[in-house]
């Protein structure tokens, strides 16, 4: 199904992922709905997606659809709740390959078009509302990060269950990672069909793996997505779109990440931009990053210094990199400080 959208008026990208969750208007639009109810309502999700674009008019150059990486485990048949003050919670995480639920998830024939239809509706609605002002990002969680949530039951400091799985049940782990990767490809393809103009794969828990374990349990599944998404788009008679990979904390894997076929590689604040540029060499990869979101708690001088350092590290000017925070906005950041961060990027790049 082809959608007719207004032509894009702004193809520069300076963005902050999920800035909207910490804006005062977010809570007003969310009302009494719980988090996943907002994700499942195309109208609410679209409104929340547009809030940062409208508050920071002319300062941010892309929107990211309001959703969550954990909609894939939900599509795989698992229950996920969002608990206030605690974050995501799986009442019944995967315990072992023979717990019954593991086999159910592995064998489930996921109809990504039906199960995640609300995301595609939100994307199409948002594209129409954007009227070509800025491009719209779609996204998914990386297989490794989704597996962490599915076996830990939520966020974790020690990742005891996850480490048990990879070191006790490596083959069962890989079978599940492959299953998740296949769902990711279909999910991203259908987001693009619905109107997403770029897609990002978030590997938020990549730093929990050693370099050798990262190769075994993350890298090959990120590669599967980048290799198979363009093929799936071709089958759907859709043009390819830029793909972004963001493996938070996996600074040791930057060289490998630049070889995976993603057009954009996200960097967090643990990486030195100038060093990253050296590692990339002449490969046609754009970097996205990489200020520490924590700088937004600081003084205006600290914010300016962080932006200067980032611009200098990426080689100055505004070509060949996407200004971004090294992860999402953190709680308690004042919208005016975020605005100042955006303004400094524009001022210092001469945009």
Automatic annotation (TrEMBL):
Keywords, ordered alphabetically: Cytoplasm, Decarboxylase, Lyase, Porphyrin biosynthesis
EC class of the enzyme, as a word: lyase
Residue ranges of domain Uroporphyrinogen decarboxylase (URO-D) in the record: 18-347
Protein name: Uroporphyrinogen decarboxylase
Record-level GO BP terms: protoporphyrinogen IX biosynthetic process
Cross-referenced InterPro entries: UROD/MetE-like_sf, Uroporphyrinogen_deCO2ase_HemE, Uroporphyrinogen_deCOase
Residue ranges of coiled coil: none
Enzyme Commission designation: 4.1.1.37
Family membership: Belongs to the uroporphyrinogen decarboxylase family.
Described purpose of this protein according to its UniProt entry: Catalyzes the sequential decarboxylation of the four acetate side chains of uroporphyrinogen to form coproporphyrinogen and participates in the fifth step in the heme biosynthetic pathway. Isomer I or isomer III of uroporphyrinogen may serve as substrate, but only coproporphyrinogen III can ultimately be converted to heme. In vitro also decarboxylates pentacarboxylate porphyrinogen I.
Self-association state and partner proteins as the record states: Homodimer.
GO cellular component, one term: cytosol
Pathway: Porphyrin-containing compound metabolism; protoporphyrin-IX biosynthesis; coproporphyrinogen-III from 5-aminolevulinate: step 4/4
Enzymatic reactions: uroporphyrinogen III + 4 H(+) = coproporphyrinogen III + 4 CO2; uroporphyrinogen I + 4 H(+) = coproporphyrinogen I + 4 CO2
One annotated GO molecular function: uroporphyrinogen decarboxylase activity
Cell compartment(s), UniProt: Cytoplasm, Cytosol
């Amino acid at each position: 199904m082809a959608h007719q959208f207004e032509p894009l008026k702004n193809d520069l990208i300076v963005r902050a992922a999920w800035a909207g969750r910490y804006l005062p208007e977010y809570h007003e639009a969310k009302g009494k709905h719980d988090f996943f109810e907002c994700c499942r309502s195309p109208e609410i999700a679209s409104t929340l997606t547009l809030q940062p674009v409208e508050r920071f008019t002319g300062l941010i150059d892309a929107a990211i659809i309001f959703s969550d990486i954990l909609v894939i485990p939900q599509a795989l048949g698992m229950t996920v709740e969002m608990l206030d003050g605690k974050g995501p919670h799986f009442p019944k995480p995967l315990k072992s390959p023979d717990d019954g639920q593991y086999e159910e998830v592995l064998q489930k024939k996921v109809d990504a078009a039906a199960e995640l239809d609300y995301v595609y509706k939100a994307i199409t609605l948002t594209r129409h509302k954007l009227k070509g002002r800025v491009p719209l990002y779609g996204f998914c969680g990386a297989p490794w990060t989704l597996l962490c949530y599915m076996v830990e039951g939520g966020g974790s400091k020690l990742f005891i269950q996850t480490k048990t799985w990879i070191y006790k049940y490596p083959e069962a782990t890989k079978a599940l990672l492959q299953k998740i990767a296949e769902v990711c490809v279909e999910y991203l393809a259908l987001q693009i069909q619905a109107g997403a103009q770029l897609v990002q794969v978030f590997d938020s828990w990549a730093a929990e793996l050693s370099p050798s374990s990262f190769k075994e349990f993350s890298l090959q599944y990120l590669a599967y997505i980048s290799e198979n998404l363009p093929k799936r788009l071709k089958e759907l008679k859709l043009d390819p779109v830029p793909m972004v990979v963001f493996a938070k904390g996996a600074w040791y894997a930057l060289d490998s990440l630049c070889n995976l076929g993603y057009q954009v590689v996200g960097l967090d604040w643990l990486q030195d931009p100038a060093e990253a540029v050296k590692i990339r060499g002449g490969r046609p990869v754009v970097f996205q990053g990489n200020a520490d979101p924590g700088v937004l708690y600081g003084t205006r001088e600290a914010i300016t210094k962080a932006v200067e350092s980032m611009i200098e590290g990426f080689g100055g000017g505004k070509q060949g990199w996407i200004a971004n925070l090294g992860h999402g906005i953190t709680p308690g950041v004042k919208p005016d400080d975020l605005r100042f961060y955006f303004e400094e990027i524009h001022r210092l790049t001469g945009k």
